[in-house]
Amino acid sequence: MTQPKKPDLPGWSDYLSRLGEQAKRDGQAPGASRERQQSQKVVEPSLRRTQSEQTESGATGNKRGPQLRHAKKAVEKSVATTRLKTDELHERGCPPVGNKKGLAQKGPATSSPVQSSPAQPALFKSWLASLARLNILAKLREKRDKPVQSASSGKTEEIADDNGEQFGRRITLGMWGFYFAVKLGMFLQELIGFHPLENLLFAVFILYPVHSRFWSRIKNGITAVVAVALLYYDSWLPPLTRAIEKSSSLSHFSSSYMFELLTRFINWQIIGLMVVAWFVYRFAASRLRVGVLVVASMLMVWLVQSQLADMLVSPLKSHEQIESAASMKPDLDGVLKAFFDKEAQRSVTFVTPPLDAAPFDIVFIHICSLSWDDVRAVGLEQHPLWKKFDFLFKKFNSAASYSGPAVIHLLRATCGQQKHENMYFAAPEKCYLMGSLEKSGFEPNLALNHNGKFDDFLGMAQRHGQLTVPPLSHDGLPVELESFYGAPLYDDLTVLNRWLQLRRESTSPRVALFYNTASLHDGNHLPGTDALPNTLESYQARLVKFLGELDQFMTSLEASGRRTVVVMVPEHGGAVLGDKKQIAGLREIPTPAITLIPVGIRVIGGNAKREGDTLSIDQPTSFLAISHILSRMLVNSPYANATFSPSYYVENLPLTQFVSQNEKMTVMENNGRYYLSDGTKPWEDYAEFNLPTGQR
């Protein structure tokens, strides 16, 4: 009979060899069958218990690693080998004599059965005690090495040495490491921001082990909620408080427009890269401790953002190097304060024209959603209308990216730029544009191509701009478009022609018309249709139509013989292209792409001729520049002579540094670079808008 391989258990090999020699000496002894049966009654229950425990633990064996399975097989093999030796000895009728150290009674080979029988109970007790100890050790090891699996805690991994011996375990981020890795990648691409301290604390929460199934489920739910909230917090989306404040306005959006906005958050290129990154992460995670690399990366970002690295390196720098670095880093808070202090001192005064001066009207065309960036996006920077203006501003800043603040800025154009929060308080009388023109002999008029109710646009113009005249009636006018919130929009040329007809019937020598149009606003569509698939695709057609109608209106003014100065000044851009921090159509951050608008001024009628070509103004300006040109026209009318020179009216033109604000965000230009602040964190370089022209 082939001897089975001896198990690698201390003392047992020697014990079995001595046991065989003792059996040869003792020979056949009566009562062996009875002792064999008793040993099987004791050994087999222990064996069955071991096998049962192995079966139960085998259900999760695939989660504990190959080392645990190796240990179980070793125990099972050892017990089976021991049982085989026992069966062989009993079949030979050799009762075991001695203890587990191999001690046996010495004597002649023909010792009588009576002499060997007293040692049999002691031998069986020692043998069974050894088996019991072996079973207990296996159970203790199984309890010690049993992992606690939690979905929110990532993954528990067994660690073994080269011989397969397990000596501990580690808790990793598991697949949550991919969540942090993707956010770090998006942060490097400037698609989102990143708050390293908050993300590190979240990682610690994920790694904290939970042993209760109930609390594990609670932790899973908390982890999912925190993950979504933290991703929103890291994104460039408006703060939740801001979203709640704007919820009343958002509730008026049509369902089709809301769906369109949601689809703009889906970037199929980014999704494709994330799928590829998932497979790369899985491959790398099987060979590297990716979680450690992810946590180390977050620590590095935290060190950089907290400027701790500069503090550690600064002792190594010389005093001259420290002073040079400090001088190169501007105090942007101080720059912003100095800007508003200066603007508070600036104003333009309108005079009453001389009695013999030729009267003329002023028409302000206030356009929602039109910026130079939008014009370039749809390829209309060479539209013939631009050359028909006498003055064309290339770097005019509207200072706001929403309609309410924009209309207040324009209606307070005779004073310097105000802080966003100060616009909702009363200003000095000299700051109100329409009021100042009225004092100079102009009758205020108001016309809109919409009802003015969205976001209380008309109410803001009346309360904070002191434009209290009633708007032009829309009765009988055809509806051209349906707005993004479901209200009718009327054709611009039709509304302007109605005003022109009423102006012909008026006896006022001078009229100042404020006209606001929302035809270019994102989400507008033809009546009876919806905003799908994408109203951005219709922006070019709507802009071409609007510019054409504005050209027709100015032609009608010229044909009527009325002397009119037309001032085209948009509210803000439409964010047709969007940027890395904002999807197309989102204007929460007042970037240069949104607030640098095309402003044109044209002198029409009275046989006035411009000297030279259109005067292009490439210096940074804002609303005070419009007031400056109009004030000089009131002093020296362009209709006084047969020709006029645009350059005369821009002498000493007030320049204005680029500063744009919303309720929470400020974008400022300083020394040729743009910076961004939300008022709670240090200023950051707005890198996307600091690239050379054409590389954005």
Notes on the protein architecture:
- The protein is of the alpha/beta class.
- 46% of the residues lie in helices and 12% in strands.
- The longest helix is centred in the first third of the chain and has 27 residues, at 32-58.
- The two termini are 85 Å apart.
Question: What Rg is obtained from the alpha carbons, in whole angstroms?
Answer: 43 Å
Count of alpha/pi helices: 26
The end-to-end distance, rounded to whole angstroms, is 85 Å
Helix content, binned percent? 40-55%
Rounded mean pLDDT score: 80
Shape assignment: elongated
Structural class: alpha/beta
Strand neighbour order, sheet with most strands: 5-8-3-9-10-4-12
Biggest beta-sheet profile: 7 strands, mixed
Poorly predicted regions are 4-10, 28-36, 39-44, 52-65, 96-119, 147-153, 158-168
Estimate the strand proportion: 5-15%
